[in-house]
Specification:
With 258 residues, the chain is an alpha/beta fold. The chain contains six helices and seven strands, in the order H-H-E-H-E-E-E-E-H-E-H-E-H. The protein has two domains: 2-45 and 220-257; 53-213, no CATH class. Helix 2 (9-51) packs antiparallel against helix 6. 24% of the residues are buried.
């Protein structure tokens, strides 16, 4: 290698510089890609926040649902719970306590099925939640909440884990929920803010906590992560460019001093 360097120093220097420059460009492109991802998520976040101030949308007809257009909108839905069609999203702490989100199917008055995140419930370590840990009204209810269209990502935590009805899930997946429950579900999850029972079922306390994080907070965490990654890629590109410039200038000076 030393002999090759002494024979062709300029060629090797140019080749090394070109390779280094390509790496710098690649690192810069990765940084720009992270910024682009952050910009896309910022637009989505702004749309969700704007939608949250729009009038509530009632799911009271069989019209087709545009999931993307409903993201962030307040939703009202009337129907009856399907208690056996429930899953629990695990590892969701609240105020420092371990717990789960209770996601249950709601059969609407028109026959369609909607997945509702009913709220948070404390879970003791080693104990699987049961339907007796919270209350499910038998009669008709009206659910008011916010539409989320990408729960599989917003609620993602690691691998999928064992997915079964009434089991602990690490993240939510529409297709998996439909498969284990045998129900065809709408492509949105409503994060319930309130539940109004039918007149014959006045007791509204169900034992679940609906103290949700600010709408868009999960996206903000992803946006901050994108910005952090972009800063890392740009920093590495700048360091490598500085090293290439330093050694290139030093070589030129040595050559000039001969």
């Amino acid at each position: 290698m030393k002999q090759l360097w002494h024979r062709h120093p300029r060629f090797l220097l140019c080749a090394t510089g070109a390779a280094g420059a390509l790496v710098v460009v690649l690192l810069a492109c990765l940084g720009l890609w992270q910024l682009d991802r952050a910009a896309q998520r910022t637009v989505l976040q702004q749309r969700m926040l704007a939608a949250s101030h729009a009038p509530a949308v009632a799911l009271d007809s069989s019209a087709a649902i545009d999931a993307a257009a409903l993201a962030g909108h307040h939703i009202t839905a009337r129907g009856r719970w399907i208690p056996e069609a429930v899953v629990y999203l695990d590892n969701r702490p609240h105020d420092g306590a371990p717990g789960v989100y209770v996601l249950m199917a709601l059969r609407l008055v028109d026959g369609r099925v909607l997945v509702v995140d009913r709220g948070w419930m404390r879970r003791e370590p080693g104990r699987v939640p049961r339907s007796t840990d919270y209350r499910t009204p038998n009669g008709a209810v009206e659910v008011v909440g916010v539409a989320l269209t990408d729960d599989s990502r917003l609620f993602a935590l690691g691998g999928a884990g064992e997915q079964k009805r009434g089991g602990l899930w690490q993240n939510f997946d529409f297709a998996a929920f439909a498969r284990v429950t045998g129900l065809e579900v709408l492509p949105i999850v409503v994060r319930a803010d309130a539940q109004t029972p039918a007149p014959q079922d006045r007791a509204s306390e169900d034992g679940l906590v609906r103290d949700w994080p600010e709408l868009g907070a999960p996206l903000q965490a992803l946006i901050d992560r994108n910005h952090g990654y972009a800063l890392q890629w740009f920093a590495m590109a700048a360091m490598l460019a500085a090293l290439l410039a330093f050694y290139g200038i030093r070589y030129v000076r040595r050559q000039s001093g001969r």
